[in-house]
Amino acid sequence: MLNKRVKYTLLSIVLSFIIVSAVSGYIISLETEIQKERYRYIAKNESDFIVSTITNVTERANTLRTLVIDHDGKTDFFNNVADDIYNNVKLETGVSLKNVAIAPNGVVSKVYPLEGNEDLIGFDFMDLSQAGNYEAKLAYEKGETVLTNPFELVQGGVGMAGRSPVLIEDKDGEKLWGLVTVTMDYDDIIKVVHLDNLTSMGIDYKLSCFDNLGAERVLEEKGDSIDTPVKTSFKIRNLTWELSLAPTKGWIPSWMILAYILGIITIPTLVGILANFICVKLLDLKEEATFDNLTGFLNKKRGTERIAKLCQRRTGALIVMDVDNFKLVNDLHGHNMGDRVLKAFAEVVEDNTRETDTVSRIGGDEFLAFYDDLTEESAVASLTLRLNRQMKEKLVALLGEEFDIPIGISLGVVMVPEFGREFKELFEYADKSLNLVKQNGKHGYKVYYQENDSSILNCAEPEKKLERFIKMAEERNETEDAMLLGKDSFSLIYKYVKRYYRVHKGNAAFILFTLNSSDELDNLAFLEIVETFSLVLKKALKADDIVVHGCSNTFCVMLTECDDDAIDESINRIMIAWDNVDHDSNVTVSHIKRYIYNIN
Q1: What is the pLDDT of residue 600?
Q2: Of the chain's two ends, which shows fewer C-beta atoms within 10 Å, N or C?
Q3: Of 99, 104, 42, 44, which is closest to residue 73 (Cα–Cα)?
Q4: CA distance 559 to 27
Q5: Cβ distance 510 to 558 under 8 Å?
Q6: Beta bridge pairs of residue 411
Q7: DSSP of 522-545, one letter per residue?
Q8: CB-count exposure of residue 160 (10 Å: 0-12, 13-18, 19+)
Q9: H helices of 291-299, where?
Q10: Spatial CB neighbours of 242, under 8 Å, sequence gap ≥ 6
C-alpha cells in the first residue's frame, strides 16, 4: 500500500508540475506577446515621427527647386529665400540646417550660411568618390528628391542631405540645370525625435540604416545587447531604416518569474499532499471493500468469490466454522467483549492457516475457509482439536479462569473435489455437516459423506463398498490435464513412482517454478495470478505429469518417463502458454530443473 501511495503521489506531483509549467509557460508567452505588441506600437509611433520630421525638412529642397525653375535658372533670389528656409525649418521642426546650397551643373556655386561652409563652394556632386554623392547621381537619374543616410560632411560634422534635381525647359525640351540641396544636422534630428524618452521608459533601442547594397549600419543604440527585440522597418523617401526595441529588464517581469518559481514548487507539492490523502482514502475504501475490519479476513463477497475459484481449481477442504454459544458473550458481557472474542478467534484461526489457505467472514460469528491440500479426516480432527484448545487459552486471558460460557469452535467440512467443484453445492454440504455438529454437542467437526449416509459404507455387500471407494477416489470432470496435488498427496505418489521405477527402471525430471511480484501487487491479487499459473501448468503438461503446489509462490513439476530434451520442451511449452494468458506484468516466473536417470 505504501508503494502505491508513493507511486500515485509522485505521479500526481509530476503531472501537476507538467500542467503548471505548461500553463505558466502559456501565460508567460501570452504576457510576452502582449508586451511585444505594445512595443511594436511604440516603435511604429516613434518611426512615424522620425519619418515626418525628416520629410518635413527635405520638402524645403522641393521648395528651392521650384524657385530656381520659376526664375529660369537665375539665382539672385537665393540668399533671401535660403535665409527664410534656414530659419523656418528651425522654428517648425526644431532641426538645425547645416546649409542650403545650389549647384548648377552639379557644382556648388552658392551656400547659406556661408560662414562655416566655405569648403562647400566649388564642391562637385558628380564626384562619386565623395560621401553623399551617390544620392546626388541617383537624384539625377530618378528626377526626384533623394535623401542621404547620415554622413561626414566636408565642412565638418554629420548631416543628412536632401538632393533635388532641377530640370528647366528650353526650346529643345527639358534640360538638367543642376542640383539644389538642403543639409540637416543629424545630431539635432536625434534630439528632436527624443529617442532618450525610450530610455526613461525602461526601453533599450537600436536605430539602423541600410545602404544601397543592403548592409546595415547602426546609427544610435542604447543597451549592451537587445534580447529578442521587436523590429519596425520604415521608409524615408528612398531610404530604409529600422528601429528595434526591447525592455531593459527583459520581456518577463521579475514578479512573474518569482510567481512561476513559487507556482511550480507549491502547487505540485499541494497536489501531491492532496493526492496522497485521496490515495489513502481510496485504498482504505478498497481495503474496506475487500477485508472485514474486525477480523482482517476477507469479507463475504470477496471471500466467497476467491473460495469459489479455489474449489474449481484446487484439491482441499471447504470448511464452514462457527463460534459456539457466541450470542451468550454479547448478552452477558456486551458487544465490546463480543468483538474481542471474535478477534481472539481470528488470531487462533490465523495461527492455524498457511499462505495457500483462505479464510472469509460470512456472518456475525460464521466463517468460511478453504484449506489447500487438506484431504484426510485425521488432519481435520487435528485442526479442530488445536483450534478449540487455543481458543480456550485465549478466553482464559480475556474472561478469566472462572468464565462459564461454553465457547468453542465447530467445523462443517466437505472434501474437494471428492464431492464436486460447484461452490454452491459444496457450501450446502459443509453447512449440513456443521448443523450436525451443532446438534450433537458442538466443539467438534463433521466431514461430509454423500447425504451423510453411512448405510452404503456399512452395507454388507462388498461390491457396493468397492464401488463407493472407487467413486470417492475419482475426481469429477476428469480431464487429460496434468495432476495438480498438494504436498501430502504428492509425497505418497512420489514414493509409489520411486518404487515402481526401482523395479521397472525409468527416468524422471523435476522443475521448480517460482513466481515473484513487486511490492505494488497486493497479496490477494498475487494469489489469483498464482492460481492462473497453476491452470497453465495443468494444461501445458501431459496427463502423466504431476504438479505440486509448494508454498504460496512455488510449484514443483515432476515429469515422468522423459529424456533430457523433453525437459526443455516442457519448460518452453509452459512459458509460451504463460505469455499467452492475461497476467500482471509485475509478476515474473523463474525456474530451475534437475534430471534424474534411473530413479531408485
Answers
A1: 59
A2: C
A3: 104
A4: 68
A5: yes
A6: 321, 445
A7: -HHHHHHHHHHHHHHHHHHS-TT-
A8: buried
A9: none
A10: 207, 208, 209, 210, 216, 231, 232, 233, 234
Assign residue 42 a region: left if phi > 0, alpha if psi is -120 to 50, beta otherwise? Answer: alpha
Distances (CA, A) of 550 to 318, 473, 498, 553, 554: 19, 23, 20, 7, 5
Distance CA 354, CA 486 (A): 13
Q: At what angle do helices 2-70 and 78-93 cross, to 10 degrees?
A: 160
Distance of alpha carbon 286 from alpha carbon 1, whole angstroms:
11
The grid coordinates listed for 139 are 537624384
- The helix/strand/coil state of 317 is strand
563 grid coordinates: 529424456
Peptide bond into 462 cis (omega under 30): no
Nearest-5° Cα angle at 294, 290 to 300: 40
CB atoms within 10 A of CB 208: 17
Looking at residue 283, its pLDDT comes to: 55
CB atoms within 10 A of CB 169: 10
Q: Report the C-alpha gap between 125 and 121 in whole angstroms.
A: 11
Instruction: Extract the runs of DSSP E, i.e. beta strands, from 263-341.
Output: 316-324
C-alpha cell at 501: 521405477
Q: 380 near 445, Cβ under 8 Å?
A: yes
What are 166-208's pLDDT values in tens digits? Answer: 988 877 777 888 999 999 999 999 999 999 899 899 899 999 9
